[in-house]
Amino acid sequence: MANKKDKEKEFAKLLFVKENLTQKEVAERCGVTEKTMSRWVRDEKWEDLKVSLLTTKEDELRRLYAQLKELNDMVYKRPEGERYANNKDADIISKLTASIRQLETETSIAQIVEVGKSLAEWLRKIDVDKAKEFVSYFDGFIKDRLK
Question: Taking the complete model, does pTM exceed 0.85, yes or no?
């Protein structure tokens, strides 16, 4: 399970990369120092992430399922009587299924933020002041989840 600092970093990364906020804005929203934020951006190359497309959860699941299918197909193509997973195959299958299970069941801070962002965009069309109020409350909610 991720600790508080890991969750703060995950939230900061999401805001910096997807929301295109400044390091100072992200530091304020996440409750970390600008120095910490600067170190994360530099050490983990978050600027590079801004120019690349981030993989969605669905894309990653699709890839994992494709890998699992390919491995199972490879095992099935073996001669009759040898159609079973060897130790290496079994280890890969186990790791792939664990990754799939984790992606399918875990709700990350990134997913929560995406839902909040969608709601804020919808609310902004109806009532800008309410949207601002919501974002303020939502930031507090995210900070609480990071504890």
Answer: no
